[in-house]
Specification:
The chain has 205 residues and is of the alpha/beta class. It is 33% helix and 15% strand. It is built from seven helices and six strands; from the N terminus they run ββαααβαβαβαβα. Strands 2-1-3-6-4-5 form a six-stranded mixed beta sheet. A hairpin with a 5-residue loop joins strand 1 and strand 2. The longest helix has 17 residues.
Length: 205
């Protein structure tokens, strides 16, 4: 498959031949949903912790006699019914990650890229370069491409583009090795350099 290639200034730069398996795949909504859900779940820290009645210090002595006081019987002052007592259903450290096969993950990313191409939300450029790590220079480049909300994918995350995009909310930069389905779906447009396309074709083949 041949797709149009542009320069980072918005000028036409010929065509580029890309893999049909990566950019002409049928969109599988259930697969994409499963992979996105798994990705977001794995990002949860799961470090929340509360104390149940066994973990709260104190409460080793029975507060008052079993009978004769007129009050409801109580075995410990650390009961969940008491002030400063333990939590009834205490939260514990938990791993929220869900297993997703590598083939499913690759298929979901390919399906998203193919859908972006069909919706004209994918822009391929020959090179993504900036002379200086200035935000205004990056904004000038994205404006020439007609972008206001976009993800820029380069071959290497380190560089002027990554530094210039750190202060922007609607423009983000990442490298081909860290492309994920959530980032691809978050932005309206995705800009990819020719080198990043080749790298994705190798990793997702």
């Amino acid at each position: 498959m041949d797709l149009q290639l542009q320069s980072f200034d918005g000028k036409k730069a010929g065509n580029i031949s890309v893999s049909d398996a990566l950019f002409d795949r049928e969109y599988n909504e259930s697969l994409v949903h499963q992979v996105v859900t798994s990705f977001l779940a794995a990002a949860r820290s799961g470090t929340h912790a509360q104390k149940n009645r066994a973990a709260v210090s104190g409460g080793g002595r029975k507060p008052f006699s079993q009978k004769g006081s007129g009050r409801a019987r109580a075995g410990t002052i650390r009961s969940p019914l008491w002030r400063s007592g333990g939590k009834t259903f205490a939260a514990t450290n938990r791993d929220y990650s869900k297993k997703v096969n590598r083939k499913m993950y690759r298929g979901a990313v390919a399906a998203i890229l193919s859908e972006l191409r069909r919706k004209d939300a994918l822009i391929l450029v020959d090179k993504v370069e900036l002379d200086s790590p200035k935000t205004k220079d990056l904004l000038a480049k994205t404006k020439s491409l007609g972008l206001s909300n976009a993800l820029i994918v380069t071959e290497n995350a380190a560089g002027n583009v990554a530094l210039a995009s750190r202060n922007l909310y609607d423009i983000a930069a990442t490298d081909a090795a860290h492309v994920n389905p959530v980032a691809l779906l978050r932005f309206e447009k995705v800009v990819m350099s020719e080198d990043s396309v080749r790298k994705l074709e190798e990793s997702l083949a």
